[in-house]
Q: What sequence folds into this?
């Protein structure tokens, strides 16, 4: 029986991945005269920018002052994202979950301030029973810590939950946590390679919650037998 849905934030609820890709490519072109590819950027999507910087340092000897990078890009991101609309289907999907009396959690590799600010701005924070951020765990995605913490706070079993993620790192974290994961891609993460997912769509509007509920119920009956 499906008792909980765990949603990622960036790229699932609001399309921050596109903004960050623009900021990263502009910064690297201006400061390093380097054309950052989307494949390179995907290394850090759903995880931490340090993954990308480590790769560039190892493969191209490009050394980044990470604190300086954060200082120079943070305000740009705030300005570009402050009026972001929700992704298509967000309101309808969240309301369909709550209409079925299913618990809803947010599990994001971001620090707490950003998702809280946007969830309040979009007036949907009240629908989330649990919010887990990078401040609540030792390791972020692709490690399973965020999802394990969400499950713990929700008080459900892993087989009673499903995750909605947009990135390869998020999917890997879901698989590492041994929780079924739906991949919902966006214009950036559609270029990723995904394996071992529960289902894959390009919009929350295409997630058939009733069908998922039916499948979970069937699995529960089989398990009971």
A:
């Amino acid at each position: 029986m499906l008792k909980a849905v765990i949603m990622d934030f960036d790229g699932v609820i609001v399309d921050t991945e596109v903004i960050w890709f623009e900021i990263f490519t502009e910064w690297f072109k201006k400061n390093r005269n380097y054309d950052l590819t989307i494949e390179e950027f995907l290394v850090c999507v759903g995880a931490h920018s340090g993954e990308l910087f480590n790769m560039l340092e190892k493969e191209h000897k490009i050394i980044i002052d990470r604190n300086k990078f954060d200082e120079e890009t943070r305000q740009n991101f705030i300005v570009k994202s402050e009026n972001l609309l929700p992704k298509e289907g967000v309101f309808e999907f969240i309301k369909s979950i709550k209409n079925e009396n299913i618990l809803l959690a947010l599990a994001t590799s971001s620090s707490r301030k950003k998702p809280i600010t946007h969830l309040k701005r979009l007036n949907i924070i009240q629908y989330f029973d649990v919010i887990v951020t990078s401040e609540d765990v030792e390791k972020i995605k692709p490690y399973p810590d965020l999802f394990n913490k969400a499950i713990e706070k929700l008080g459900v079993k892993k087989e009673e939950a499903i995750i909605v993620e947009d990135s390869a790192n998020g999917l890997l974290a879901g698989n590492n946590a041994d929780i079924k994961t739906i991949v919902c891609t966006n214009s950036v993460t559609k270029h990723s390679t995904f394996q071992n997912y529960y289902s894959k769509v390009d919009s929350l509007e295409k997630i058939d919650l009733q069908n998922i509920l039916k499948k979970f119920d069937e699995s529960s009956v089989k398990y009971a037998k």
